[in-house]
Design a protein that fits this description.
This is Glycosyltransferase. By secondary structure, the chain is of the alpha/beta class. It has helices spanning about 10-25, 40-45, 70-85, 90-100, 105-120, 135-140, 180-205, 230-235, 255-265, 275-280, 280-295, 325-330, 340-350, 365-375, 385-400, 405-415, 420-430; strands spanning about 1-5, 30-35, 50, 125-130, 145-150, 225, 245, 270-275, 300, 320, 335-340, 355, 375-380, 430-435, 440.
């Protein structure tokens, strides 16, 4: 049996998808990953095969640096980073405007390339990142069954009454003006309509009999797999399509002498990461570092594209690197400070760790709101939160009596008993999966 994984060339997307694929690998089955060249080392590290399938103009092997992108992508990233300094609405508005180029990149060409990969690999099952729109366009028009993996907050797949890119909720720390929200909603609606036209036009080139869709952002596969914890979904009243909740995709990570020495010290520590993109916000990371110093706790900080020197004087006993093994550290952390990205949130919940979320963009606001509602953590506005406010939040979350800690521990135990890869394997092994040229029956698993 062969599993094909289709992912954009971004480490933050590939890591959870590749982790899901370990269930097939552990069962002795073949795993092939279709992605770009930047993440080839990640594919090799998992022991999978790789076929080349770039799905966007950008790429990210773990830490996003504009100088490593082509000119258009670098300029787009610089404008995005600048927008994050202006706040929630300007950032979301900028992202909405970029959506027609970064989510549907060369749709006809990439769709045809996707079908060529499927014919060459002849998979028995397919897992696709929901945001790989050009690839899913190919699968949709060809009538090929696949597992549609939605990373991050479930609003990445809008449901009735929602517009993609407009948060269904945001944390209490954000109080946008009603007029600004109305303008943002109109913009997101215009982009959604234009995106549907783009999808439908490309679909008709691929298949002249293709039926137009009203909202291409809402198109999904028959098998929707949310990489999201049940605990956080309990705060969500949105009407989701039939789905499977994977919880998180906890992966094995290598250790080293410095990491092991850090973990042997049982003094509580705070894990800090703003992911591969938002680590560029060194000003906020520096405030977080100052706040943690004031608590007297230790810290493990993944600095990403921010130089460690920008964080100020770092106490002895702290672990500060460009990149850190997140899952391994979260297993022992007392608190996580995060931008609210998919991997940080799901992996923290999977380890029962309360979070301080400082959201900057996309679905991070809705995710932070859910975390706040169920008591899994707190949320602050990254541009305005003082080091004193961050210190107070970290200290509250580190208290063993934090009210949400019990619910987090119950969720973590449930995920350990039924891990995401196991659920994904069972879901895709439960019925027929059409390939580009045939339909086959997967065994029960």
């Amino acid at each position: 049996m062969t599993l094909l994984v289709i992912s954009p060339d971004y480490a933050s997307h590939l890591l959870p998808l590749a982790t899901l694929a370990t269930a097939w690998h552990d069962a002795g089955e073949r795993v092939v990953v279709a992605t770009g060249t930047a993440t080839a080392p990640i594919v090799a590290g998992f022991g999978f095969e790789r076929v080349d399938l770039p799905l966007g103009r950008g790429a990210n092997a773990g830490v996003m640096r504009t100088k490593e992108q082509d000119a258009a992508e670098a300029a787009s990233l610089d404008r995005f980073f600048a927008a994050t300094h202006e706040g929630m609405v300007p950032t979301l508005a900028y992202q909405a405007g970029e959506r027609l180029t970064d989510l549907m990149w060369q749709p006809v060409d990439r769709a045809r390339a996707t079908l060529e990969v499927i014919d060459r690999v002849a998979p028995d099952a397919i897992l696709v990142d929901h945001l790989a729109f050009s690839a899913r366009l190919a699968l949709h028009t060809a009538g090929i069954d696949y597992g549609d993996v939605v990373l991050g907050h479930p609003s990445a797949l809008p449901v009735a009454g929602e517009v993609y890119g407009y948060p269904p909720a945001w944390p209490r720390a954000f109080d946008p003006r009603p007029d600004d929200l109305a303008d943002l909603h109109r913009l997101c609606l215009e982009v959604s309509e234009a995106f549907a036209l783009q999808w439908n036009s490309a679909a008709r080139v691929l298949d002249s009999a293709s039926v137009d869709v009203d909202d291409a952002f809402a198109v999904h596969g028959e098998r929707v797999l949310y990489n999201y914890p049940r605990l956080l979904l309990g705060a969500d009243e949105r009407m989701l399509p039939r789905h499977v909740l994977l919880g998180s995709t906890t992966r094995d990570e290598p250790a080293d002498a410095d990491l092991e020495a850090f973990l042997r010290d049982e003094t509580p520590f705070v894990y800090v990461s703003f992911g591969s993109f938002l680590s560029v916000r060194g000003d906020v990371l520096a405030r977080v570092a100052t706040a943690i110093r004031r608590t007297g706790m230790r810290a493990a900080i993944a600095t990403g594209s921010t130089p460690a020197a920008a964080l100020g004087d770092l106490p002895a006993g702290w672990l500060v690197r460009e990149y850190l093994p997140q899952v391994r550290l979260l297993e022992h952390a007392a608190v996580a400070v995060t931008h609210g990205g998919n991997n940080s949130v799901t992996e923290a919940v999977g380890q029962g760790v309360p979070m301080l979320v400082l959201p900057f963009s996309t679905d991070q606001f809705a995710g932070a709101a859910a975390i706040e509602r169920v008591g899994a953590g707190l949320a602050l506005a990254p541009n305005t939160a003082t080091s004193g406010e961050i210190e107070e939040a970290v200290a509250a979350l580190a208290d063993p009596g934090w009210p949400g800690r019990t619910a987090l521990e119950i969720e973590a135990a449930a995920q350990a008993e039924r891990p995401g890869p196991v659920l994904a394997y069972a879901t895709l092994s439960s019925g027929p999966v059409a390939t580009a040229s045939s339909a086959v029956q997967l065994p029960a698993g």
